[in-house]
Design goal:
Number of helices: 10
Number of domains: 2
CATH topology of the largest domain: Rossmann fold
Structural class: alpha/beta
Shape: globular
Strand content: 15-25%
Number of strands: 12
CATH architecture of the largest domain: 3-Layer(aba) Sandwich
Order of helices and strands: EHEEHEHHEHEEHEEHEEHEHH
Length: 333
């Protein structure tokens, strides 16, 4: 009889983490999810969900201990827990991001040095790369050095990459590091300040009555977006592979912010006029290669349009439900 694998997903209450739990369940794993909060927009499919704060080493220890006093270790640990959000949040909460994320990763690694975890996946970010100009040549994973990340979030990710790589060199743990491009899809944050561009723009388009929406910057910044189902497939494939070193995960489909607005207008059937305002934009361009992840046989299944159609429909439904609740609870005079 084949023993069922056990996986721990840190950050299982978040967007990508909650989707990853479902992916691992489809693959036949017993899954424990841990996070400071449960998933906001759907129920977790984890076999066990623990509310913990990984900034504390004790909570890392509890998270890494097998259920019911079982001896041994998790077969795989996926570390996606982080204090993060869209560009507005990254620029406004730099100290919190640096402190909270460093504590999470330091305490996880400290606890891992006491254990014999076979595989450890860490979610890094394309923010580790320097600022790029429009239409610049694509950067490979090696081009993260000499290091000059655009923001403090990127610096913290780069430090944590080195911390976790050091663990891999000095233990038998097979360390995997992925540098994520901007991920989008349903069941994620779509309001409140932490949402990313596809979700924020989808919400604005769904809410507008006059076709006008505010867009930070002039809209010429170019981005690479990846649909969440493609992301978790890539995470799983990388973790099962023998590949070493950081790996970019994203697609070759590039789009400007203005192009994203136009695409949402077409999907929604609305005539959308972007009103450009001052706001944090981040880097002007993101151009990385994805040869390493595609060499494992991974290819994205969703185009930007296909993924955004699903995402927009879900967010538009959330907007409608929110507006209905507001109208019901509004005071009557």
């Amino acid at each position: 009889m084949v023993k069922q694998k056990k996986a721990l997903v840190c950050g299982a209450g978040g967007f990508i983490g909650s989707h990853l739990v479902r992916k691992l369940k489809r693959e036949g794993y017993w899954v424990r999810g841990v996070d400071i909060k449960e998933p906001e927009h759907w129920e977790t499919q984890a076999d066990e969900f623990l509310k913990v704060d990984l900034r504390w080493r004790h909570d890392c220890k509890v998270s890494l201990s097998l259920p019911n006093g079982e001896q041994g270790e998790f077969d795989e640990v996926y570390q996606l827990a982080a204090d993060m959000g869209g560009m507005g949040f990254i620029h406004s909460a730099e100290c919190d991001i640096m402190i909270n994320n460093a504590l999470i990763n330091i305490n996880m690694v400290r606890e891992l040095t006491m254990r014999n975890i076979k595989k450890y996946f860490y979610s890094s970010s394309a923010c580790v790369y320097r600022e790029q100009e429009l239409n610049e040549d694509r950067l490979t994973e090696d081009d993260a050095y000499p290091a000059m990340p655009h923001n403090e979030y990127g610096w913290e990710k780069l430090y944590s990459e080195r911390l976790i790589s050091t663990l891999g060199r000095h233990s038998d743990t097979d360390v995997k590091i992925a540098r994520f491009q901007n991920c989008y899809g349903p069941y994620g944050t779509w309001e409140g300040g932490r949402e990313k561009a596809p979700a924020a723009l989808s919400r604005k388009v769904a809410e507008t009555d006059n076709g006008k929406i505010e867009v930070w910057g002039d809209g010429t910044a170019i981005r690479n977006f990846i649909y969440v189902d493609d992301m978790v497939d890539a995470i799983y494939m990388l973790t099962q592979s023998t590949m070493e070193g950081p790996v970019n995960i994203g697609t070759d489909e590039l789009i400007t912010v203005n192009g994203l607005v136009d695409l949402l207008g077409d999907i929604s059937g609305k005539s959308i006029e972007p009103i450009h305002v001052d706001g944090p934009v981040g880097v002007i361009g993101r151009y990385e290669t994805f040869d390493r992840i595609t060499s494992l046989g991974w290819t994205p299944k969703y185009s930007m349009r296909e993924g955004l159609e699903i995402t927009y429909r879900w967010i538009a439904e959330q907007v409608r439900e929110s507006e209905m609740k507001s109208s019901i609870t509004a005071p009557f005079f």
